[in-house]
């Protein structure tokens, strides 16, 4: 019997930890897919779709966001890897909303699968299973991972880089770390810092220097571009940063695990270092620390600790312990829900319990089924019929304008994310060809900006719907022409393909008989 066949039989053996892990991962994926039509749940998805459409219009990566703050634009300093992945799907004809749905549906199960695999290979199947139980028991963990796809992608690539380093696959570690650096502007540096501290000893220092040198050389163009336009970046503390959930029982297990496993801290050193490196999220994004990526090392340590606890029990108790842990964490564990203006304690079950109908939905998720209000598809059709490509649209709310821009491919005079300022101050209304003024409620009074735009600018009402008043500018002063790509899409995809080929080649060589593939001590 070959090793691969033996491994498959262990995974699918009924009653094994691997079997139940696969079942839990499968259930998570099924529940995500069941809500396919409700996605995208989050407004950030539309920002990334707008960037992808801008790349498509430019023909590849471009450093100026000409599709926002039109016609002056603003620097596009966001790492491009996620947008390039989206662009590959758009290139084969997949609709923008379906692209966003795919990534939001897949983000949570893929994240769980990757770190379950890492935990299983480095520690044990039992520790990996308890990691899954804990990770699926905090409701907001799923929402944070799904809302911030580039950050989730960076964390996945950072985890694979860390695992590859421990397995002495230095080429793969460099590639995954480079993908992480081109996915997000903060998370990869935290992973790199943790790896640097882990490799501080003489035995690992040379490997770390090589790894860091290659990654920094590869990331130099992006870093240079970001530093070049650093003066346009501004830090904004949005309310979403302060909405988080803390599972009280989970946190208790985390604390006990950190204390108990400290006696073997040399074995789990990288987990402790990673926990320390993720502390900056307490300054920038509380929700990403308490309910997101900051939980990762604690989830893994807690999974290891629970498996060690199980092994201390009698054979009969060992068989009951996983089910008891699952039921307790998913049905009975209380949580602290923190909002910008209130804090409350709930005992309403996990996300999986919610999907099974025995838990309370998380009411802080405000945008469920946003598109199914029927507003945006109708308004998008009106915009397409009333404007030409390159004409600028706008709306009183920047995310409304951004969503309509994604659905129509028209540039917008506003911008969704405010962290990067425009190249220059300008009069939005003077350049706007079509303005969509939303009513406060269907069939309600006309928005006050309608009269203002008619009196001060050359706007006339061209269409009224129960939800909006659409105004056409009879004298728009600008149109937008896409800026040609700095790096063509084919070159970008070629580089990504070569890097992936390097990972496959190293993996293949390492698996050849006689080659050593041991863990780094």
Q: How is this structure best described in words?
A:
It is a single chain. This protein has 23 helices and eleven strands. The protein is α+β, with helices and mostly antiparallel strands and 521 residues long. The strands form four sheets. A four-stranded mixed sheet has the order 7-8-10-9, sandwiched between helices. The protein has a three-stranded antiparallel sheet with strand order 4-5-6. Strands 1-11 form a two-stranded antiparallel sheet. A hairpin with an 8-residue loop joins strand 2 (64-65) and strand 3. Helix 3 packs across helix 5.
Keywords:
single chain, 521 residues, alpha+beta, four-stranded mixed β-sheet, three-stranded antiparallel β-sheet, 23 helices, 11 strands, 8% strand, globular, disordered N terminus, disordered C terminus
Distance between the termini: 30 Å
Secondary structure: helix percent: 55-70%
| Total number of strands | 11
The overall pLDDT average reads: 85
- Please summarize the sheet with the most strands: 4 strands, mixed
Give Rg in angstroms: 25 Å
Specify the structural class: alpha+beta
**How many DSSP helices?**
23
Overall spatial form: globular
Strand percent estimate: 5-15%
Any low-confidence stretches, pLDDT <50, length ≥5? Answer: 1-9, 366-372, 513-521
Give, in spatial order, the strands making up the sheet with the most strands: 7-8-10-9
Sequence-ordered SSE layout with sheet pairings:
Blueprint: H1 3-12, H2 17-34, H3 44-58, E1 60-61, E2 64-65, E3 74-75, H4 81-91, H5 96-122, H6 125-135, H7 139-147, H8 149-166, H9 170-181, H10 187-198, H11 202-228, E4 244-247, H12 248-261, H13 269-277, H14 281-284, H15 286-290, H16 296-311, H17 315-332, E5 335-339, E6 342-346, H18 351-355, H19 375-386, E7 393-394, H20 398-408, H21 428-431, E8 434-438, H22 449-456, E9 459-464, E10 468-473, E11 487-488, H23 489-510
Parallel strand pairs: 7-8
Antiparallel strand pairs: 1-11, 2-3, 4-5, 5-6, 8-10, 9-10
Helix pairs in contact: 2-5, 2-6, 3-4, 3-5, 3-20, 5-6, 5-7, 5-8, 6-16, 8-9, 8-10, 9-11, 10-11, 10-13, 12-16, 13-16, 19-20
